Amino acid sequence: MVTASAPGKVYLFGEHAVVYGEPAVPCAIGLRASVTAEKRDEGLRIEAEDLSLSGFTVEYDDDETNRPDIDVPNSLVDAAMGYVDEAVAQVREAADSPDAGFDITIESKIPLGAGLGSSAAVAAAAIEAGTRELGVELSKAEIAERAYQVENTVQDGQASRADTFCSTMGGAVRIEGDDCQRIDSPDLPFVIGYDGGAGDTGALVAGVRELRDEYDFAADTVEAIGDIVRRGEQALAAENIDEIGDLMNFNHGLLSALGVSSRTLDSMVWAARDAGGLGAKLTGAGGGGCIVALDETPETLTALEYTPGCEEAFRAELDTDGVRVES
Ligand code: MEV
Description:
binds (R)-mevalonate; alpha+beta; 24% strand; single chain; Ribosomal Protein S5, domain 2
């Protein structure tokens, strides 16, 4: 039996635009998904706990008729299980063991579909745990590549490498097309607000694609996000936290223009700014889920806790460890 874990992430800059080849800078955070893989004779049995901050347990089986009714949004759980199914397919291919069976147990502190990279973390941890359980040791580069294949398959060919590379490598990373690198970053005081909801990544990505195809100014908006990221990289290198915050605010405005924010995400962003946060933006696909703000003082955290629509607010630190074997 092998347990591996991988971190979630926030986007400092660049989500959505990264799908069209613009650069993005996601940062891994110390909120992890753990996956335990144990060989069994055949098939796949998945048990998952705490796939939302409110927590629930679900058991999945290869045979759909054995799947129990559950009282959490089925589409989200189905999506999560889709990532595990695809991750196991990658494990079987990497280990050249097409018939390998597994009991998979997932424990995750990363809310599902909320912009914190839950699916990428589960995919990377499942690939690491599954291959190690079969006696195969993959490089991090191979885990990142295979986790990307998982996301790309589940998201109908519309995934960037950002989430999976960040979760596998840890730290702050820069993604531009197929070019993925770790970059230096100062300590960033992340405060996260979570509205308890989730966005449908596939539908949100498709919505931006339609706008971009229809309107030149939407295509320009996507390019402008790329400009923000390039400027943000300079601010990171100069450790200019004030400018990083300003650029996060600008980035949120452009994501909002592309239709991927929501009333509660906007409320949390404004609450963080009003409380003195250095910058605040939605993180990930949007539509619902999380915002990320920068603030060292307690004010932003407290303001978010009292913001209508904010279900949880918490601090998160940059996690420089990517995927790792736990036991
Ligand atoms: C989702 O976490 C981030 C998006 O940019 C999609 C992707 O990069 O695959 C919206």
